[in-house]
Amino acid sequence: MFAGSIVALVTPMDAEGAIDYVALEKLVEFHVESGTNGIVAMGTTGESATLGFEEHLQVVRKIVEFAAGRIPVIAGTGANATAEAIYLTSQLEDSGIAGCLSVTPYYNKPTQEGLYLHFKAIAESTKLPQLLYNVPGRTAVDLLPETVARLSKIDNIVGIKEATGDLDRFKQIKSLVDDDFLLLSGDDATGREFLLLGGDGVISVTNNVAPKAMATMCQHARAGEAAKAAVLDEPLSLLHDKLFIEANPIPVKWALSRIGLIPNAFLRLPLTVLSEQAQPEVEKALQKAGLI
User: Fold this and answer.
1) Where along the chain is the active site annotated (predicted)?
2) Which end of the chain is more exposed for a tag (fewer CB within 10 A), N or C?
3) DSSP assignment, residue 221?
4) Is residue 269 domain-resident?
């Protein structure tokens, strides 16, 4: 259920910052048709940080509705207050989501024990499968492998999205957890190598614009077919880089607009549309991938 090529889905918006549910439904259809293996709704790429709780929950429910059981939906439910993360999780308990993705608490910089107790409390509050999410470049806190191993012993904590891009970190975690604990990459640039080393999937930003190529590449990499995976990944390599030329999801929204998958590239403040200086760089990446 949580394996292969999983899209970290954007949330389309209009010029006033309202959520464009028509465009959102089209994106879900696009991913179902393209062979994407799962959707993360309301993660970093979905702009969860600028949506209120009710909007956040509504977007998740709408994506579940649009997916109609054809593709699993994982909901971002993390927060830097444990009580808020538990609230978001509880509100989606019977929504039809396949599980939750819970980011490490940002800004307040808890200790490893604090991280352990945070995720333990969330997991104990719900029956839903829980995926940990470690992205220290965004949160200023790093969930260390030893803490991941402790958390993996909790029944409904089923895996981790590890977004450091450090393959040695992946190897260390893999050595400490049971074989059924899911290991998902949160770094497109190293996703192929992550899978070839035995990872289960990639939660991908690039997947937004190139889902068929990502799905096929991940399939070959998971099968250990390194040469085939490399051939498929090479045209995407510039996207893996340039979709982070400014803070995600600024570049990917511009890219989606450029190739006609969403009507515009609008984001909510404090995020702004991709700068004119950066646009040609993303354009080159889209060209290399054969998308324009």
Assistant:
1) 133, 161
2) N
3) H
4) no
